[in-house]
Specification:
With about 800 residues, this protein is an alpha+beta fold. Strand 46 (about 690-695) and strand 47 (about 700) form a beta hairpin. The termini are far apart. This is Receptor-like serine/threonine-protein kinase.
Length: about 800
């Protein structure tokens, strides 16, 4: 063959191959198909369509995932989630008879859009930048024949909808994957209530509801059981209803934010946002809040336990039905018996001994119990034994109840749980230790028991005397290492709870020298012993008049506790939001608390060897001593817990109103996140109320929006003051606080002051110019109060950067410089 002719053939084949590979960027047309490693990419590169293989699975699926802006392959939609393919080279996604159809290796159609088209030869499939795969009757058509957003799988993207078809009474479902490597429909689903109550439900196995959002409140624009939506400035939710359907949809106020809702394999609906700085997904919100609130999460004969991993364990006498599934966090198969019951088998298999019952205290009883008549616990047990299908019983003040068949939704509660019940679990006799010992063994055991009792008595006396004289060891100077029994004794077995949060619960205690302490029980510690002690020692070296002092710690296995000075006046929220006028904090006290808190945060950010970001500034974490001096609590715990900040914050209740936008916008979190939280708290110093609350007319009022409006319109700032103070506050100080608060909550963190600058402003050393209204306050003003505060004048102000002037030299010169850190 002529060399030039050969080269021409090769060039033609190369161009043909790459034309087939690219498929015209974002479109599949009638004469092109998708197979192998070929993909199409949306016009802006946000999403990709192609074959993918989840995890270590050998199965292949057609799906849509995020494009070049998200480095982790994150699938948002799956076509053939129930019928995978093995050979993608022989499988093919193409236009056929006016539909988009997936053919497997044997050229058998296994998935289709399944619509009728008027002109099948012109139909095209286009992947849009919203992640929506649209089937159109020609490239110029604007009306979709079919679109993936109308057929979601486990992910709800912006612009998509979860609807109820009123004509068929069918709800559109968001269904979890079976496990991390199998996108087949799992047991958990989210849907709009078929009864038409305009609320979302999460169901187990499409039958049992275990969470609801509450009904939609059109006036407040929130779901009634999701109150944190009052402070939402990320999503714009909308509800539509006509004679054909009802549905919710949402959009993002900031189109650059990458965020999604997912019906997770955990049975929780989760809101996640992509953090560009750390290149990971940030879990920002989830419901139900506790994992064990998910119905039957651990499957049949599995028990769910909060407070540590793993959440799921098999009951005694049972083992995992599928170890491989459990390894993939799929517990739906549950557990099965290790030894079959006597009632079910030939008596020779268990030496003719009847089944027995294992006592399981402090549990949340499974549902679907059958009440039976019994006057005693022995009669209740006998009733269960007589029924071969009876697997457990309970007998208490509610009478006798028995369970037939599988036990579902069993939860092991903490030892101090007040609502715990006792369950008697039926097991084969061989699961219990044998009692048919011969006399010689019994006599020997009895003699040994006497000796053991004497040893235990002596040991008990020694331990009792030791507990009465707690003698913790000094570690790194003044920091003390306590024993767990010592703290258990000091707190009277943790009986007087002072409060709790995302890091753990706090209990009041008294040491033998009569000094009062506060003991925090840390939850879900992932750090090793050496690392934990290192972090605690670091916290122990931090000393400041406006920081709560760490006195010691306890580290015994999984038991990790911190010992602090006790603050007799409790937390700031109990005083700030007090409804009795006579007990309201004076303005002078509020101002001093604001200043002291700022000094404590400035010390953490600027004076420590390494900058310490608190991550959860709010009134609940500002404690007050006997003289009402503020002490910042819980600093350093985010790192100490050993979890990423996003996980810590999503487990805390009531913190969303103080979170900076960068937690979900993808910007790396810095100390300026604390500045934002501090600014939100300053608004509450002024009003004496929570920033978001419902007024008498039923509308949700967001105080920071009102304060920003008053400041920019030069209205009377005293109208913002807590009515309980009767206007008793210096107008200059009140104006200063409001200005600082508005600068602290700016959307762009570079425009917020540092905590050191905040201290100087509150001390009167620096003055500060008038702030612009932050964009999120404008959004809340538009959507919560139906008032537009973004005017032409405020638009001009929005380009400002914060500046300050030294009050000592302001008469001599106007020296202005940037406040950005």
């Amino acid at each position: 063959m002529d060399p030039w002719l050969k080269l021409s053939v090769l060039v033609f084949m190369w161009f043909s191959f790459n034309s087939q590979l690219s498929l015209g960027a974002d479109t599949i047309s009638a004469n092109r198909s998708l197979s192998g490693n070929q993909t199409i990419v949306s016009s802006g590169g946000n999403f990709v369509l192609g074959f993918f293989k989840p995890g270590n699975s050998s199965n292949q699926y057609i799906g849509i995932w995020y494009g070049n802006k998200v480095t982790q392959q994150t699938v948002v939609w799956v076509a053939n989630r129930e019928i995978p393919v093995r050979d993608t080279q022989s499988s093919e996604l193409k236009i056929s008879d006016g539909n988009l159809v997936l053919f497997n290796e044997s050229k058998v159609p296994i998935w289709s859009t399944n619509i009728s088209s008027s002109s099948s030869s012109s139909v095209v499939a286009v992947l849009e930048d919203s992640g929506n795969l649209v089937l159109r009757d020609g490239p110029n058509s604007t009306t979709p024949l079919w679109q993936s957003l109308d057929h979601p799988t486990h992910t709800w993207l912006p612009g998509g909808k979860i609807s109820l078809n009123k004509r068929t009474n069918q709800s559109q479902l968001l269904i979890s994957w079976k496990n991390s490597e199998d996108p087949a429909p799992g047991l958990f689903s989210l849907e709009l209530d078929p009864e038409g109550t305009n609320q979302y439900l999460i169901l187990w196995n499409r039958t049992i509801q275990y969470w609801t959002s509450g009904a939609w409140d059109e006036q407040a624009r929130i779901f009634t059981l999701v109150p944190e939506m009052r402070l939402n400035y990320i999503y714009n939710f909308s509800f539509y209803s006509d004679e054909n359907e009802s549905y919710f949809t949402y959009s993002l106020y900031n189109p650059d934010t990458i965020s999604r809702f997912v019906m997770d394999i955990s049975g929780q609906i989760k809101q996640l946002s992509w953090l560009e700085g750390s290149k990971e997904w940030n879990l920002f919100w989830s419901q139900p809040r506790q994992q064990c609130q998910v119905y039957a999460y651990c499957g049949a004969f599995g028990s769910c336990t909060e407070g540590g991993l793993p959440f799921c364990n098999c009951l005694r006498g049972f083992h995992q039905k599928s170890q491989s599934a459990w390894n993939l966090s799929d517990f739906s198969d549950g557990c099965e018996r290790t030894t079959k019951l006597q009632c079910k088998e030939n008596r020779t298999l268990t030496n003719g001994k009847p089944d027995k019952f294992l006592t399981s205290p402090n549990v949340k009883l499974p549902q679907n119990a059958q009440p039976v008549t019994a006057t005693s616990i022995s009669e209740c047990e006998s009733t269960c034994l007589q029924n071969c299908s009876c697997t457990a019983y309970a007998y208490d003040s509610d009478g006798c109840r028995i369970w037939i068949g599988q036990l579902l939704d069993l939860q092991q509660l903490a030892d101090d749980a007040s609502d715990g019940k006792t369950l008697y679990l039926r097991l084969a006799a061989s699961e219990f230790s044998s009692s048919s010992n011969n006399n010689g063994i019994i006599i020997g055991a009895a003699a040994g028991s006497v000796s053991l009792v004497l040893v235990l008595v002596i040991f008990g006396i020694w331990r009792w005397r030791r507990r009465t004289t707690i003698n913790p060891k000094a570690v790194d100077g003044s920091l003390l290492a306590f024993g767990y029994r010592d703290l258990q004794s000091a707190t009277k077995n943790f009986s007087e709870k002072l409060g709790g949060g995302g890091f753990g619960s706090v209990f009041k205690g008294t040491l033998p020298d009569s000094s009062v302490i506060a003991v925090k029980q840390l939850e879900s510690i992932n750090q090793g012993e050496k690392q934990f002690r290192t972090e605690v020692s670091t916290i122990g070296t931090i000393q400041h008049v406006n920081l709560v002092r760490l006195r010691g710690f306890c580290s015994e296995g999984i038991r990790k506790l911190l010992v602090y000075d006790y603050m007799p006046n409790g937390s700031l929220d109990a005083h700030l939001f007090h409804e009795e006028k006579s007990k309201a904090l004076t303005w002078k006290t509020r101002y001093q608390i604001a200043l002291g808190t700022a000094r404590g945060l400035a010390y953490l950010h600027e004076k420590c060897r390494d900058c310490i970001i608190h991550c959860d500034i709010k009134p609940e974490n500002i404690l007050l001593d006997a003289e009402l001096c503020p002490k910042v609590a819980d600093f350093g715990l985010a790192k100490l817990i050993g979890r990423d900040f996003s996980r810590v914050l999503t487990t805390m209740r009531g913190t969303r109103g103080y979170l900076a936008p960068e937690w979900i916008s993808g910007v790396p979190v810095t100390a300026k996140a604390d500045v934002y939280s501090y600014g939100m708290m300053l608004f509450e110093f002024v009003s004496g109320r929570r920033n978001s609350e419902q007024s008498e007319d039923g509308k949700v009022r967001f105080f920071p929006t009102l304060a920003a409006s008053v400041m920019t319109q030069d209205d009377d700032v005293l109208t913002l003051l807590d009515p309980q103070l009767n206007g008793d506050a210096p107008e200059e100080e009140l104006s200063r606080i409001c200005k600082v608060a508005c600068w602290c909550v700016q959307d762009d963190e570079t425009r917020r002051p540092s905590m050191g600058q905040v201290v100087q402003i509150l001390e009167g050393v620096l003055d500060v110019n008038l702030p612009p209204i932050p964009r999120f306050l404008q959004v809340l003003g538009d959507n919560s109060e139906h008032v537009v505060f973004f005017t032409e004048s405020s638009s001009n102000q929005s380009s400002q950067t914060p500046s300050y002037t030294s009050t000592a030299s302001s008469q001599a010169k106007s020296n202005t410089s940037s406040m950005s850190s």
